[in-house]
Each structure stands twice: as C-alpha cells, then as structure tokens.
Amino acid sequence: MPELPEVEVTRRGLLQDLPGAVVERVWTSGLPLRATVSQPRLRRYLQGERITTVDRRAKYLLFRFAGGAVCTVHLGMTGKISLRPQEEPRHKHDHLELALENGIALRFNDARRFGAVLLWPANKAEEYEQDFSSREGLEPLGPDFSALALQRLAAGRRMPLKSFLMNGRLIAGIGNIYANEILFAAGLHPQQPAGSLAPADWERLALAAVRILEEAISAGGSTIADFLGASGHPGYFQLQLKVYGRKDEACPQCDAALTRIILGGRSTWFCPRCQPLQHLPLQHQPKKRKA
How far apart are CA 20 and CA 49, in angstroms? Predict the structure, then answer.
C-alpha cells in the first residue's frame, strides 16, 4: 500500500503540470471502488473548472478547484495516478480520467479497486474537510510533529510502539515499511509499550521519523510491488531499507541476525541486539510548559 512518502511523491509530481489546468471532460469506468462518485456528479462539479493546487492530508490527495470544490483521492493498495497524453489508450484498470484543456489526461488506475474518490462541493467543502481532517492523525512532516507531541499522544497507552506509529488516527501516513525502518533508526523495539518511552526515546523517534520519510520522498518512495509516481517512474528507497523484508540477514549495524515476527497482523522486522525490549513503567502525561 502506498504510504506517506509515495503519496507525497505523487503530489509533487502532479504539481509540475496541474495548477492552472482546466478540466475539459470527465470519464469514469463505472466500476465500484472503496468509495466512488458517479460520473454525472463529477461532471457537474469539475467539468470546466480550473485546478488550483494539489494538497496532501495523511495518505489522501486533495485536488482543489478554483470554484471551491475539492476532489479527494486515496490510492488504496495498488492505486496510481499518472499524467498521460489524451490520445494514449486507457489501460485496463483505469477508473477515473480528467481530460485537461492542455492535452494531458490525469488518470487514476487501481487494479484491486481498494482506492477511493470523494467529492466535496464548494458549498460544503470546508465543513467536509474539517470533519475529514479531524479523523486523521498528526502529520509527521507538519509543524506540530515533535517528541513532546508524540509523548503526550502515547501517555498511558500499552499498545506496542509499532502499532502506535501505524495508528492513522494518532499519526498520519506511516505504514508498515516506514514503521519498521523508523524504529530501527531510533533503536526501539517494535513491541515496546508506547506509553513507557522516556523523553530521550521520543526525541530519537521523532528525528528518525522525519529523516526516514524525507529520505524516502527524495528517493521517489518505495516500489515494493507496483508503485509508480505521477511521471510513471518507480521509487528507489527500497534499495536503502535496513530491516524491512530482511529476516535472518545480518543487521547493518551489529551483524546480528534480523528477526521477523507478526505484530498486529503485520510482518515486523527488527534487530534484537540494536532494538532491545525494555521493561519500563508507563509514563504519565507530561506537564505543559509554562508560557
């Protein structure tokens, strides 16, 4: 499943061509996605409208239009958005096309159809976006992401640290690949109770999260299965992965054999020597600093 870096890579690729483009025609396959908008409704609100920008919230792309409407897309597990010449034939699993006046077609392709397309009309867009955003967690690359913010979110929680990182209602956009890599970089065991970390642990974790995600974005994301950016190129961060998918291989730091367990239904890789499980009491909510 595309995670925050892959969605951000897609967004940045789209920003090279989309702002200022006008939607000339709208086409849909008619096949159901996890969430679907009918072709007549999309035409009503998007046809003839100018795209102003593309934002990201968690793993969602928000296409903003000059008239105030917002079209929101989630890539699901296999979704890809690309910009193609309009004369190029559509592919088998294309489900949405916005044909633009500049001759480019924006196409959403999703083989497994777990993706989603949402539409917020101009008169409801602000209300819908506030409700949507309130259900998503803290943005790892946003201004509010810090060791103290993470510590406060985790206070008193017994859930494993990896499950905490992957809980989208707490932290937005971190999936299985990057949770494994972040914990290894921070030297923290994936099963460590989230509420037991000390302030120094949170400092390492916050720094590792931002660094790993930014490095992944710079590398074009990770193409483990079939992710492609908006330009049609794969990502290359998978070449830099230290623990993900490397059971029994030597740890790049200490040469100990890497371990794989199942945690929260997901494969989890770590180094038992570099990421020791500590038996520590749960931490209380940190006091707010005086102004």
Answer: 10
